[in-house]
Amino acid sequence: MITRRSFLSLLATTPIFARDIDIDIENNQDIYVSQMQWLTFQSALQRLIKIRKYVGYGHFNILSFDKALFYAKNYPKIGEFTKEELVLLDELFYEKPTKYGFYGRKTNHSITDKINKKDIEKIPYTGHYLFKGKALSDYNRIKKDVGHDVILTSGVRSIVKQMTLYMKKIYSLNGNITQASYSIAPPAYTYHSISDFDVGKKGFGYSNFTEKFTTTQEYKNLKKLDYISLRYTIHNKEGVRYEPWHIKVI
After folding, report:
1. Sign of the dihedral through C-alpha 151, 153, 159, 160
2. Looking at the chain, which terminus has fewer C-beta neighbours within 10 angstroms, N or C?
3. What CATH number did the domain enclosing 130 receive?
4. In the prediction, which pLDDT does 17 show?
């Protein structure tokens, strides 16, 4: 297992992130993956995607970091993570995201934190899991009260899953970590790893993850329920975009 100490010994000599030199220094400057580390960033992301393809989407949702390293090391088509890639992943996890404008609460304190399979239940026909207890109870009540077209679009996410989503968003924004952190919580700060889940309308596709979801009857029915609330409301203090699909559990 890769230790935090070995990560940090490399990190001391490796510049990971850089501010955009084209932005006026008097303004809040967006932070980007440094040009030096861009190729490493891409190769690490591609390795995570290969792992996802190998283990399957459902299993990837709950895959631990140590298990991801195991698959990478033992399956040649994936390939072992390089030291530079591990340093970058470590930095993305442990870096305080307030510098990116994200002020949410930290939900995981170690990159090797695991999802206990005894605590979760797989939801049929979705490929997703929910935590037993209030999350599962709330979802079942939503299914009953909102209608048969409401679906679970995202449930339990391991650190590996959240890291991959986070990096994909950064990549789509040409390395802009600040803007990515407005759209998706950094891997150590997602409530999907301890409680929350997303819902949407069957057949609505990616629009379920946009404000278009608020135009659906499912959302209107959801708003009438007194036992649920949204995690990321309009102008929330966490610095995250409005997410009308994200159900707050705790």
Report:
1. positive
2. N
3. 3.30.1380.10
4. 66
Residue that has been written with the tokens 């159900």 in this structure: 247
The share of the chain scoring above pLDDT 70, in percent, equals 89
48, 114 Cβ separation under 8 angstroms: no
What confidence tens digit (pLDDT) does each residue in 11-41 have? 444 456 665 433 333 356 999 999 999 999 9
Place of tokens 């952190």: 181
Q: Where are the beta strands (DSSP E) in the chain?
A: 17-19, 31-33, 120-123, 128-131, 150-154, 197-201, 229-230, 246-248
Helix, strand and coil percent figures for the chain, each rounded to 5: 45, 10, 40
Neighbours of 158 (CB within 10 A): 26
The domain containing residue 199 runs over which residues?
Answer: 4-248
| Count of structural domains, the chain | 1
What is the three-class DSSP state of 215?
A: helix
Tokens of 206: 């990616």
